[in-house]
Specification:
By secondary structure, the chain is mainly alpha-helical. The chain has 16 helices and eight strands.
Length: 507
């Protein structure tokens, strides 16, 4: 098998703690623990469930948003890039599209039980899987592999939840599952929560390999990368630097052509450390494989695409729901090769793909079209894998980590300039590295140019303390202002918590 196509038809019905309504405990089960899992192969199927949040599917056909992080709507890209300063507001579809693209998180108080907070329950599920694996009568090697993958998933989910809500109540001790401890929604202190997530990620990094036999499984690089992100978000710069140096010693490098990172033919390369493994034949529903539908959200409906024939012509809306701002486009050096994936003019077509004679230009576009995933393969959906961690990101995080505790050293500046050199632009100007604060601003700007539309911007702005400032400068007014990029705790959780869980600041 070339890719890990996680078809969780059995795992979803395995026995364990789960949640269908509110925070009440329910059984997943139609299969009995008396007869499943028993064999090593069955335990492997059982443990595949931990990959469920890290695929890309339609959430409505795959259990809801409480599972997926890398799908389409309510994905990491949706919640991190859409409400940011880099993407234009999109009121055409109304509802949560209007709210989120305007960086208005206040309505998320009413985000129901299919929302991201329910991943706290999925963490409970993973804790149960880990306990079952540790007690399984299977080979030690297989047991370690599956436990390691489960702990990677648990630590990664804890990191994502931390960036979305702050600390959240989680069950990491299987003996507490099915007891009153599950009803205790007291938020752990930050040090305890971060240490627990770091422990899982460190365990995963120490026991995963760089290149698994099955492409798409978690690897050592992604474990270290998420651990590095966790430390940076917690402003533990020295630990982040130490982890970054581990990644740098693994032999990754920047590939020569930036655009090749997002093409089907070159998606496997020595820069992409881990990506969502996409099935070109998948349609994102049920068991039909991970897919990449981003072209339907980034290309306007009258966009001609790159193929003269094929099943895809244009996107879902006009303008597209994800459109870069002109301010972001204008921030690039004209020589920057990364800007080439922002399209400023095209010859419009009708629904049949025939030219209309209308030429779309800056005067008639809300912003440049994001063409990061080229529609150059003749499939119903794009076959491009979705990068989640790239070596360029590691270099920029290394610069951030070093600057955070030591200021703008020549080594840290060199990491940023290495990324810039691949883009075809010169070194940072002296003013951009003159002080710790100036270099931090330069790193944040470089991250925008290098990583736009890859699901990082909200977290980056929070990490650099620029969420409110940059959103307001871009014409968006974060509401409420005191939230500083965090989502509110949903009301159903507050109600279930009986006063033990406190709402986030600003709500």
């Amino acid at each position: 098998m070339n890719k890990l196509l996680v078809l969780l038809t059995l795992a979803a019905v395995a026995i364990g703690a789960g949640c269908k309504k509110g925070l009440d405990r329910t059984s997943f089960g139609v299969l009995s623990p008396v007869n499943f899992p028993k064999t090593e192969a069955e335990f492997e199927t059982y443990a595949l469930e931990v990959y469920k949040p890290f695929g890309s599917k339609w959430s409505y056909s795959d259990g809801g948003n409480q599972y997926l992080w890398h799908g389409m709507e309510w994905s990491n890209t949706f919640i991190n890039d859409l409400p940011s300063d880099l993407i234009a507001s999109f009121p055409e579809w109304g509802g949560y599209w209007t709210e989120m693209s305007a960086a208005n998180f206040l309505p998320r108080i009413n985000h129901g039980t299919n929302g991201h907070f329910q991943k706290t329950r999925f963490i409970t599920r993973i804790t149960k899987i880990i306990a079952d694996l540790e007690n399984a009568s299977i080979s030690d090697a297989k047991k370690k592999q599956l436990v390691t993958e489960a702990r990677m998933a648990r630590g990664w989910l804890m990191y994502y939840l931390y960036t979305l809500y702050g600390t959240v109540p989680v069950i990491l001790d299987a003996s507490k599952i099915g007891t009153e401890a599950e009803a205790d929604l007291t938020r752990p202190d930050k040090a305890t929560f971060v240490a627990a997530a770091a422990e899982d990620l460190r365990y995963a990094a120490d026991n995963l390999v760089k290149t698994p036999a099955e492409y798409g499984r978690f690897n050592k690089g992604i474990a270290l990368g998420v651990l590095m992100r966790l430390y940076l978000f917690d402003k533990n710069y020295q630990k982040a630097e130490a982890v970054g140096r581990e990644i740098m010693a693994m032999g990754y490098n920047l590939i020569p052509n930036y655009q090749d990172l997002f093409r089907v033919a070159t998606e496997k390369n020595n820069e992409t450390i881990w990506a969502v493994s996409v099935d070109p034949a998948g349609d994102g529903s049920g068991a039909k494989g991970n897919f990449n539908a981003w072209g339907f959200y980034t290309y306007p409906s009258d966009y001609p695409g790159l193929l003269s024939t094929g099943p895809r012509k244009g996107g879902y809306s006009n303008p597209s729901s994800f459109t870069a701002t002109w301010g972001f486009y204008d921030s690039f050096d004209p020589l920057d090769k990364r800007r080439a994936l922002l399209i400023t003019t095209y010859n419009a077509v009708n629904s049949a793909g025939n030219p209309t004679g209308v030429v779309k230009t800056r005067a008639s576009l809300r912003g440049p079209v994001i063409a990061k995933y080229p529609d150059d393969d003749a499939t119903a959906f794009q076959g491009n894998d979705i990068p989640v961690l790239r070596y360029a990101d590691v270099l920029l995080m290394m610069a951030e980590a070093i600057n955070g505790h030591a200021g703008p050293t020549s080594e840290a500046i060199g990491f940023v300039n290495e990324v810039r050199a691949r883009a075809g632009v010169g070194d940072l100007p002296p003013a951009g590295t003159a002080t710790k604060e100036a270099f931090a601003s330069s790193i944040l700007q470089e991250r925008a140019w290098e990583l736009y539309f890859e699901g990082f911007r909200r977290i980056d702005l929070m990490r650099f303390g620029k969420w409110n400032e940059y959103l307001q400068a871009a014409g968006k007014t974060p509401n409420p202002i005191g939230a500083n990029g965090y989502f509110p705790i949903p009301q159903y959780v507050l109600s279930a918590g009986n006063g033990k869980i406190q709402q986030n600041d600003g709500y």
